[in-house]
Amino acid sequence: MRSTSVRTGRRLPVDRRYRDLPNEPLPGEIEPWQAVTPIRPDTAHSRSLRFLDTAGELLAAVAIIGGGMVLTGLASLL
């Protein structure tokens, strides 16, 4: 198998003025952690969706627990 990459010992020319500059972020540039961190907007629409999600989870928990209690009660009658 032949290697397709060609490696020469030559380096690209770099202007000496820019070689030793500190690695500082540019204005308007985002940090890597900001690109993956979810940021929730705090608006009425997002709060209502979170409330409905929580209310749905609570309703599902009540239905599951209540259904289990009803089935246990019916099973004891047999």
Q: What would your notes on this structure say?
A:
The chain is an all-alpha fold and 78 residues long. The protein is built from three helices and no strands. The protein has helices spanning 16-19, 32-36, 44-76. The mean pLDDT is 79.
Q: In which range does the helix fraction lie?
A: 40-55%
**Major sheet characteristics:** none
- Classify the oligomer: single chain
N-to-C CA distance: 75 Å
The H/E string reads HHH
Mean pLDDT: 79
Q: Report the C-alpha radius of gyration, rounded.
A: 31 Å
SSE blueprint:
Blueprint: H1 16-19, H2 32-36, H3 44-76
Task: Please describe the structure with a list of short key phrases separated by commas or semicolons.
78 residues, mainly alpha, 54% helix
Task: Summarize this structure briefly.
The protein is mainly alpha-helical. It has helices at residues 16-19, 32-36, 44-76. The relative contact order is 0.05.
